[in-house]
Amino acid sequence: MIPHRINAKLFVTEETAVSLPTIVPVFHRWIQTQAVPGLLIDVADYKHVPDGPGILIIGHEGDYSLDQANGRSGLLYTRKREWPTDDFKQRLHLVIGLAVQAAQVLSADESLNLAFRTDELELTFADRLNTPNTRETLAALQDDIIAVLAEVYGTDEITLATVSDEVKRPFTLQATIANAPTLAELNIAQLEPAV
Q1: Which of 9, 38, 84, 160 is deepest in the core (most CB within 10 A)?
Q2: Does the residue 137 lie in any domain?
Q3: What's the pLDDT score for residue 193?
Q4: pLDDT tier, 190 (very low <50, low <70, confident <90, very high otherwise)
């Protein structure tokens, strides 16, 4: 059971006021300066869509967005192709690591004043063929997901909860991390695993 599309979303803090128009020039700068890994192609503005993808950078391997889904703003990274490995745990570590790295770059940008929570993370496996939204999928992947999160966060005080039991929705988990470290302290050293 190896998903081919994995999303990781880090939410902004409650004190953070997200101004989507200010993100557009920042994301254009990311393309020009290659501020984050991957081949970045274009910026798409979906701020007019309620609870939508917000501002999106379309990339070759993956997309980055300041997502607004379900009324919660956050940095969303979606890996869609060019996986360097077939190992699920390494794929998951890569996706979480790229999301964390992008959140670090955004939070360091003084023009934005963004801060991100580390005590919760949303993981979506947007591949219903390989990861249907069932209890069996949770049972099959749960131990590996917790192991990767424990490595990234440096703690095993992790709780996973499914976001929806609706079969037509993608398999999505909400991870809650007790005593989470800061964004800068997260272990994302292994971004491109060896194949």
Answers
A1: 9
A2: yes
A3: 43
A4: low
